[in-house]
Give the backbone structure.
Amino acid sequence: MNTTVSRRKIAATVVTDAAGKVLTVTQKRHNGQLTVALPGGHQEDGENEMQTLVRECIEETGVSIAPTESLLYQVAVSHGPTQYDVNVYASTLKGVYPRQQRSGERVVSWSWLTREEAIRAFSTSSVRHIGEPALARLEGNTHHQSWRYDASSAYLQAQKAVVGPVSEPGHFAVGDYHTEQLGVPALYLKDADSLSRAAMELSRMVAPYRSDTVVGIAVGGLPLAVLCAQILRLPLAIVEHDATATSSARTRGAGLGNRCAVIDSTFHSGATARRTIDVVNSMNGTVSLVAVATQSIPLNTHTDYDIDVPVHALHHLPIHSWNPSECPLCQTGVPLDERPGRNE
Ligand SMILES: [Zn+2]
């Protein structure tokens, strides 16, 4: 097979203002969808990367930046035969010029977001593989790391094959809620290849946080956690929650480190993540992020548990859930289903 690879250079930047807010742009993609991105773009002939960044920031947002040498993150993104070498820098705000929106522009708006807002916005962006690691690396990190990211295989495969059958309809009790569908990461276990690709994708999300320990939650989170620990070459600790006594938990394996990456299969109400963070904190560790295969996005209730660390997921599952007393399925006499993937 003759694959001609052409390479293009892209420079992007995380611009922060005095308050630590991050400049983001909203782009219209080729398919017409809007997505959040970092300011930046293609390097034009005769330009160095700094000149590209200064020009793009002015063109896209009216924001003028000081030239920077601070490389946060590099990623090679393949789209078919074209490879984009993306360098993401950190730069600081110098001034803001008025900017007129022109019709037909790729960037349709721009805004300053807190770091937490930006991380949340990038979690559903089609360029999250650029934005998320760069934001994670902002946190006092001076060295950078390179990744390869193949948009035509890895991530799309993760969306289609790895997390292919992501949910099952029914009537399920999940945490304190009843739901009308359930994320079924247990399906990964049926295919070792899917499982390892999911672990690879999760590891990409975890790596920029510079964790020193992977914490797997028994039992469902263990297959992914074991593989992530192996990929990231980090020690593995296992937290085992007692299903009947919510306050008790046991840990196995490595001791809990200072910066733990918590890996689990699902994130529904946040109850398990919250309890795990509490366990880690009680042992003088901190949790740098929670990474899961499937995260439920509640459509009609809010998450009960406050999770004060970033949550990353391979797949977001929009889901209706109710307090049992208000569950419309219960009200029409639909019996609860066994949770799939469990043999009990
Ligand atoms: Zn119900």
Remarks:
- The pocket of zinc ion is lined by residues 171, 178, 324, 327, 329-330 (CB under 6 Å).
- Confidence is low (pLDDT under 50) at residues 140-165.
- The two ends are 50 Å apart (CA to CA).
- Residues 6-154 form a domain with the Nucleoside Triphosphate Pyrophosphohydrolase fold (CATH 3.90.79.10).
